[in-house]
Write a structure and sequence with these properties.
alpha+beta; 5 helices; BirA Bifunctional Protein, domain 2; 12 strands; 269 residues; SH3 type barrels; five-stranded antiparallel sheet; single chain; 2 domains
Length: 269
């Protein structure tokens, strides 16, 4: 069920032309005193980025958006926002006919083994102990970058129908508000975890995790109660807090991941 329009209307929206990064613009506004519940959408980005400082290629025609939230939950639970946003993005894509879009741990939307969207959740401390959360979302609608070291694809609807950035954002706006309400500021992560697993890529399959301490392989069993990946390694189960997941074998040069913006803790986005 979609969120009611009254909830949707409680968000403010800023539309930009080309800016450095929607996350950076959200950060600047937060530090200047913005009260939050603000979406920033850009036509293009000159300095878009993903996890581990990777460049996010940002030509016109794709979606670049960031939700700014102030004190959305206790700080320890803030990394769960990556799963909240992932569920919202997957639901929005499915609403528009992208039935083959799946969520890849920890923060991608894929078609097959090709990335079509990504999430970047960052945090910043404000005066008096308040918390800023920046939930950045980039989706390949008009084009998908080449030569980035991993397969990419455009997000498409039924029969290969193009999904425009504007219609994806309108659906995302409602679905994100809905998922936030389900999550209840971190008090109800279980429904979000279950919804994420319903759309998980590679669940039950052999995967490889490239992490700061090296690479390991096993079966993707699921997520624990905090969003950490459960990796079956023969008779034992390993709990993975952060890393890059490969359903297909990764290139030999795949680098080890750095900690996320919230650290390498529970449910790191």
């Amino acid at each position: 069920m979609l969120a009611p329009r009254s909830a949707e209307a409680s968000w403010r929206l800023v539309r930009c032309g080309e800016i450095d990064s929607t996350n950076e613009e959200a950060r600047r506004r937060a530090l200047a005193g913005d009260p939050g519940r603000l979406w920033i959408v850009a036509r293009s980005q000159s300095a878009g980025r993903g996890r581990r400082g990777r460049t996010w290629v940002s030509p016109e025609g794709n979606l670049y958006a960031t939700a700014l939230l102030i004190d959305p939950c206790p700080q320890a639970l803030a990394p769960q926002l990556g799963f909240v946003a992932g569920v919202a993005l997957a639901r929005a894509a499915h609403d528009l006919g992208a039935a083959d879009a799946r969520l890849k741990w920890p923060n991608d939307l894929v078609r097959g083994d090709a990335k079509c969207a990504g999430l970047l959740v960052e945090g910043a401390a404000l005066p008096r102990g308040r918390l800023t959360c920046l939930v950045g979302i980039g989706a390949n609608c008009a084009s998908a970058p080449a030569g980035v070291g991993y397969p990419t694809a455009k997000l498409q609807g039924r029969g290969g129908k193009a999904i425009e950035a504007a219609e994806l954002f309108q659906r995302l706006l409602r679905r994100f508000d809905e998922a936030l309400a389900e999550w209840r500021a971190g008090a109800a992560f279980e429904p979000i975890r279950a919804a994420w697993l319903d759309r998980a890529a590679g669940l039950g399959e052999r995967i490889r995790i490239v992490a700061a301490d090296g690479a390991r392989e096993g079966t993707f069993i699921g997520l624990d109660a905090d969003g950490r990946l459960l990796l079956g390694e023969g008779s034992r189960t390993a709990t993975i807090e952060a890393g890059d997941l490969w359903i297909s074998p990764p290139p030999d040069s795949a680098p080890a991941p750095a900690p996320s913006a919230f650290g390498q803790g529970k449910a790191a986005p």
